[in-house]
Specification:
This protein is α+β, with helices and mostly antiparallel strands and 261 residues long. The protein is built from five helices and twelve strands. Strands 1-2-3-4-5-6-7-8-9-10-11-12 form a twelve-stranded antiparallel beta barrel. Helix 1 runs antiparallel to helix 2.
Length: 261
């Protein structure tokens, strides 16, 4: 799914919401005119009508964005690469009944997505605290399994379910937390530091050298023809990370979007 298709789908969701809000509106109006015939009852229609109108305006706005982005994509070069060697990735979160994190290359092509892993057979019937990273062919690239409540651990596995290490978060004060990364042998390999009020997460290695960053509000202006929202979060990671190292550090996305926010 290209970025213009993401905005088109978002527009359609708002259109569906607009149409859905007209159902109770119609029921109230028809019921009141045919049975109750009370003028005051019509006041109950107003919230639904206002919601429907706002949703329809958002639909038009998002659809115009989708059309504009598609026009810009037709003039851009396709330089898609692998999610495991891209230096910059743009993150879009869709909070719905089935929340999902969409990951894009700066050229507007989809790199992958993260969603809750349901499994198959008996595994599908169990309550799941596992998320998976998928590529554009919907093939699993890695797993993130949540554990704990007070001390949150995100165990990271590759596509073959080989354990790679963990992200660990411990609260150390009011709105303060210690976020650390450990390899498969339990050795400390880095930490994540950031603000609890706005998105700016810095990833360090064991020598406290910055090797990654997730931040909102610093998207390069040259990407704006394809990503019209200037606050689109950008994940930057060192290019020389192996696939396993990158998966381990991408666990901060699970904490940021599916735990903290």
């Amino acid at each position: 799914m290209k970025i213009n298709e993401y905005y088109r789908d978002t527009a359609n969701m708002n259109l569906n919401g607009s149409i859905a809000a007209l159902v109770p509106t119609t029921i109230i109006i028809v019921g009141n005119l045919s049975v109750l015939k009370q003028r005051e009852i019509m006041l109950f229609v107003l919230p639904f009508m206002i919601y429907s109108l706002i949703s329809f305006q958002v639909y038009l706005f998002r659809m115009n964005q989708s059309i504009s982005i598609k026009r810009n994509m037709n003039t851009s070069r396709d330089i898609s690469t692998s999610i495991f060697n891209a230096q910059h990735l743009l993150i879009l979160y869709r909070n719905s009944q089935s929340s999902r994190l969409f990951i894009y290359f700066p050229n507007g092509h989809m790199a992958g997505h993260i969603k809750k892993f349901r499994g198959t057979g008996i595994e599908r019937l169990k309550p799941s605290r596992t998320y998976a990273l998928y590529n554009i062919e919907d093939q699993v690239l890695g797993y993130f399994k949540l554990k704990g409540r007070k001390v949150i651990k995100i165990n990271v596995f590759d596509r073959n379910r080989l354990y790679l290490g963990r992200f660990e978060k411990r609260n150390i004060g009011f709105r303060k937390a210690k976020k650390e990364l450990f390899d498969r042998n339990g050795r400390f390999i880095g930490e994540v530091e950031g603000s609890s009020f706005f998105m700016d997460e810095l990833v360090y290695d064991r020598g406290l050298k910055e090797v990654g960053r997730l931040r909102r509000g610093w998207m390069p202006i040259e990407w704006s023809p394809l990503f019209p929202e200037p606050n689109t979060p950008v994940l930057s990671l060192t290019e020389d990370f192996s696939e396993q190292d990158r998966l381990l550090r991408m666990s901060l996305l699970i904490n940021e979007y599916f735990i903290e926010r």
